[in-house]
Amino acid sequence: MEIAAQLADLVRASSITGRERPVADLLLSGWAPLVDEARLDRLGSYIGLKRGGGSTTALATLPNPGPETSPGRPGQRHPGPPRVMAAAHIDSIGGMVTAIEPGGFLRFTTVGGVDRRLLMAQEVAVQGARPIPGLVGSKPPHMTSPEERTRLLPVDQLYIDTGLSEAEVRELVPLGAPVLPRFRFRQLQNGRVSSRYLDNRAGVATLQVALEELAQTRHTADFYAVGTVGEEFGGLPGAVTSTFAIKPDIGIAVDVTFAKHPGSEEDSFPLGEGPTIAVGPNATPKVTRLLRDVAKDLGINYALEVLPGHSGTDAWGMQVVRGGVATGIISIPLRYMHTPVETVDLADIKAAGRLLANMVARVDAAFVEELTCY
After folding, report:
1. Class of domain 3-92+196-370 as given by CATH
2. Which residues carry out catalysis?
């Protein structure tokens, strides 16, 4: 599928943290021709396996609840070919219905890092018994005090107006129903697109590009494409549990990072000039070096992203599972993060997917054995 069309399908699907099933189901069907096996784990993360040459690994053997190492043999690897896992989270920020008030108005709260500055007058979709369009309402400025006009309204003073009667709302909308920004997918100029939830559907699309590239590339390592749940929640449950089950030799987090626009010149990266490769304590130096070498050999533009602490990605959880996992981070520059108009350049997604696939093709048993020496 053409990448813009794939992204449009992905951002159309609801996937607020804790309710990611619609996106996981899209991957089960859409990626079926690209992987040898696929399943959803107990938390709902998607796990797809693209076997390397000569591999006999099967998803049916996962998870492996046994210990990673034998007594007295720290660092002992699993049998079989190397395993490379790439994780892109499939959950999104949004809201949840907390109360139904007289007149059919809905009170709500936020899920994840929603920018409260943008909530007033936003068009939303309430995921009740059917998707219900609505508007976030508040008092008009004529009815507010001078003090109220200068401060940000708390979420509990906002409400959603669907136009339905109270009886209709009570029939269609249960408490806890997800609230999403209205779906709009905009194709801008020069290969750029804008929509809700490109954090992190851009990362998911990168995994698809990598799978398509690997279908035409010889590789000995088994490649696990994973759509993780719960990243926006903060505890990284999907990253931790899927890494524990897969037991990878290398884990790559594929996410978004900040793109340059007026007022964001520091710690941000230009659109259309390639992905970023992270350096810092959450990225194993030998994995980072491999990514940089592959990019150089293939002429893929990239920028180094210095992350001196918590990376804010699934790599933070992947790194410390079992006896430890060598990690790397590839990120797609994105403007206006956590807003309904997130913007990316399709060329960056394609470059990141090509980088990831060719990195996987370079991984062999000798490289993995060297990872025991940091």
Report:
1. alpha beta
2. 231
